Amino acid sequence: MSAGVSDRMTAAPGQAAPARPRKSTRSVAVRTAVIVVLVAAPPLIFSGYWLFVAAQVLAFGIATLGLEILYGRTGQLSLAHASFMGVGAYTGYVLSQHGYGVPAQLGAVLVVALVTGAIVAVPTLRLSGLRLALVTLAVGELFAWLLTNTTGLTGGTQGAAVAPVVIGSLDSSVPLYAYLIALVPAALATLLAVHLGRTQLGRRMLLVRDSETAARSVGVAIARTKIIAFLLSAVFAGFAGWLYSVVAGFISPADFNLFASVYLFVAVILGGAGSVVGAWLGAAYVVFMPQLFTLMGQPNLYPLIGGAILAVVALLIPDGMVGLARRLLTRAQRRRVTATEVAA
Amino acid sequence: MTATLTPAERPGADDAAPPTIAVTGLSVRYGGFYAIKDLTTALPGGEIVGVIGPNGAGKSTLLNAISGFTPLTEGTITLGERDLGTASTAQRVRAGLVRGFQTVRLMERESVLTNVLVGTQRLPQPDPVSQLFALPRQWRARRRDLAAAMAVLDLLGLGADAERRVDELPFASRRLVEVARVLVSEPSVILLDEPAAGLDRSGRRDLASVLVRVHRDHPSTLVVVEHDVDLVKSLCSHVIALASGALVCSGTPAEVFGDPRVQQAYFGRILDAPA
C-alpha cells in the first residue's frame, strides 16, 4: 500500500466522513455556457436545408444515446439499432396515415419500441459480443425484409412521405421549427442519459459491462439489467426514428438498414463509448460529414476518408473523441502544475 | 463507517445476530478432481474467521461454494437456519452475504465512488422508473448510499480519492476500493479472499485494524481467506485449516497454529521440534 493511503487509513474513528468532492461553480458555469452556445448556434448560423440537417443531428443524437446506453454502458453490441429507429418512424407514419395526432403517435412509439425491444432482448439474454451482434444483425435484416414486403402499409422500397407535424404554432416543415421541435426530446433524452449515470440502475449497467462476476457478487440481477438496457435503448431509438421521420419528411427502408446501424455504432465509437458528450459528437460526425463531402462535390470520398478516420480512432484513440480530449486536458493540467512548481 | 451515520441511516442495519455458516459433508468436484471432499465445519457467527491452508487446499472453493459461485457436488451449507443449497447468488446477497475476490474486479474506467456505490445494490433500491425519473424515493436512496459510500471510503483512507478514476490508483488502493464495495452495505456475512494480497506490511496492518474496527462497530461473520500467518493471528478469533480439500483442524489461532499438522503443512516442520 502506498504510504499516503496507509497514513490516511488510520483516520481517527468517529471522524466525520468528508463530503463528496463537488464540481466547482466555475466548471458548472463553463459547461452550461458551452451547451447554451452549441444549442443556440445552429439557428443563428444556418438556415434552410442546413437547419434541417442540424435537426437530423438531434434525432440521430437521441438514437446514439440509446446505443451508448446499450453498448457503451452495458457492453451489449447491437446491430439492429437502426431497426428500432425504423420501428418508431413507421409506427408514427402508419398512425398519422390513420389520422392520429402526435400524442397518440408518441404513445404508440413507446409501446411498440418496448414490445419489439423485449422480443429481441429476452431470447438474446445469454449472448454477448460477436454472437449477439450476429443475432441482432439477423433481426435487422428481418425488419428490412418486412418493410420491403409490406408495401401497402409502409410504402415498401419506394418509401413514404411523412406528413409534417404541428405542435402549437410550430410546423415541422419549417426548418427553424423543425429544429426547435427536435430540441425538446433531444434535451430530455440527454438529461435522462446523464441522470441514468447517477442511479443504481446506471451503475449496475457499468458493472455488468466490466465484470459480470463482480456484478453477481453484489447482487445485481444481470439478466434484468440487460433487458432494461435493451428496452431503454429501443425506446430512445424509437423516439429518434419518429423524430427523424418528422424532420426529414420522408422515410424508406434504406434509412434503417444495416448500414444505418453500423453508422450509429460508428458514432458511439468515434465519440467515445460510455460518454453522453461522445454520443453527441459522434452523431454530429455521422450526419454532418457526408453532407460536407457532398457540399465539396466529393461525396464518393466520404466512405474512404470516413473509413480511414474510423481506423485511426480504433487503433490510436480507443476512448474516442471524448477520451482524446480528456487525455489532452489532463496533459495540459499536468504541464501547468509542473510549470507552477518550477516557478515556485 | 458506522460512526458517521445515525442508526436509521445505517444502510444494512440488522438487529439479528450475525449468522453461523454450517458446512456439512461438502464436496465440490471439477471434472474428476475433488477441490473439497466431505468437509464438515462451522464458521461461527459474529466472529472473524480465518481460512488457511497451502495452495490447492480448497480455501477459495469453500468461499465460492458459500457465496454460490460454485455448485455443490454433495453436502449442505446453511446460513443460520437457512439452507443455501438452491439459493442464487443474488438471494444470498439479499440474505446479507457479500464477498470480495482474490483478483480485484473493478470498473477500471469509473470513479472510486461509483465503484463503491454499486455495492449498495443489496439495500432496498427504488424501482427503475423511480430511479430514471428522479422521484423522491430515488433521492432518499441516493443520499443514503452516498453517505454510506463516503463513510466507508473515509474509513479506508480513500475519501479524497472518491472522484478519481480507479485506473489512476496504485494497486493497493484498488484492492481497498474492492473491500469498500463489500463493506458499504454492512452485510451480516463478509467473505474476503486474500484481501491483503499485494499490500505491504504497514498496509496489511492497517487493513487488519480497519477490519477489526468495522467488525466491532457492525458485528458480522467476517470470513477471511489468507496466507499471511501474522495477519490471521492478529485478526481472527477462529481459524479453519484446510489441506487437499479436507479439514485439518479448527479452533482459536493458538490452537490451530499449535497443531503439528498445520505446522507441517505451513512450515514443513513442527516448530518446537528440533530441526
Principal-axes geometry of chain A comes out as globular
Overall mean pLDDT of chain A stands at: 88
What summary fits the major beta sheet of chain A? Answer: 2 strands, antiparallel
| Total beta-strand segments of chain A | 4
Rg of chain B computed from alpha carbons, rounded to a whole number of angstroms: 19 Å
**Count of helix runs of chain A:** 15
The portion of residues assigned to helices of chain B is: 25-40%
Distance between the termini of chain B: 47 Å
What does this structure look like?
The complex is a heterodimer of chains A (344) and B (275). Chain A has 344 residues and is mainly α. In chain A, 74% of the residues lie in helices and 2% in strands. Chain A is built from 15 helices and 4 strands. In chain A, the strands form 2 sheets. A two-stranded antiparallel sheet of chain A has the order 1-4. A two-stranded antiparallel sheet of chain A has the order 2-3. The longest helix of chain A is centred in the C-terminal third of the chain and has 27 residues, at 222-248. Chain A is globular and about 75 Å long. Chain A starts with a helix and ends with a helix. The relative contact order of chain A is 0.15. In chain B, a hairpin with a 2-residue loop joins β1 and β2. Mean pLDDT of chain B is 87; it is low at 1-11. A 6-stranded mixed β-sheet of chain B has the order 6-7-8-3-9-10, with helices on both faces. Chain B has a 4-stranded antiparallel β-sheet with strand order 2-1-4-5, with helices on one face. Chain B has 10 helices and 10 strands. Chain B has 275 residues and is of the alpha/beta class.
